[in-house]
Amino acid sequence: MNRRQATKILGLGTAGLILNPSMAYTKEDQMIQRTIPATGEKLPVVGLGSWQQFDVGASAQETGSLKEVLGNLLDKGGKVVDASPMYGRAEEVIGDLTADLKSNDQFFLATKVWTTGRQEGISQMNDSLRKLHRKKIDLMQIHNLQDWQTHLKTLREWKETGKIRYIGITHYTDAAHSRLEQILKTEPIDFVQFNYSIRSRNAEKSLLNAARDKGVAVIINEPFDQGALFRLVKGKELPTWAGELDIHSWAQFFLKYLIADPAVTCVIPGTSDVGHLLDNTGAGFGRLPDPTTRKKMVDWLRL
Description:
39% helix, alpha/beta, 8-stranded parallel β-sheet, NAD(P)_OxRdtase_dom_sf, two-stranded antiparallel sheet, NADP_OxRdtase_dom, single chain, signal, globular, TIM Barrel, AKR2_Oxidoreductase
């Protein structure tokens, strides 16, 4: 069962919930924002990942829905878009579409360096600037810690000269969490990105606390555990108390669990579907669960 099918079942089984969860909030409402500790700048808590979804051709048929996704992200108050050279044409597609929307400078564009060697890293990052139609990247991250010590020196130089605004490191597996934690405790890092979901909670052991204590902003990837969470709730209705937390879909249930941790700066679920984008951004509005309710959420899913 995919997310679209799960949503259909949810719609049939939860009478009284609004048809389009995101429409509960207007432009007068503001998405929840979190502060980047390094500067005090604020970011909206729901952004957009681009792995797979944005690796498409240049035709209008292939990019049309993606352009709508980006436009609606801005309309709902989001701005963080995450990419990487690893993601095929994602950087180029994002750059072209945000330029077409005449809104490139309204996005907080994050990408990564994913290669070995100083000069190779410099060349790749210059390519990213070109593809993203930028003279300055908001956040440059070292993808999966590849040759991180070499690239970190370059990123510091680029930050000093104004070519990037923030420095980050990333990974996507639980096994890398201890290494990420060690680096952010010993190096001046602005952002750390890692996997975390209501089912995969290894980050709660110490990594989230370490980021908070060191003043490092946190971006969450794999918030739906590669879609496994939607399979987990197949045939299940939302608990009756979900509405008390302004939760109107399983996607919002999963995302609000993460956003409720004050160490989390932004979650970046990837999608090429406008309906899913609107649903995801709905998690950035309204009430958030307290620690007791977060435990209740985990228990409800019997994880």
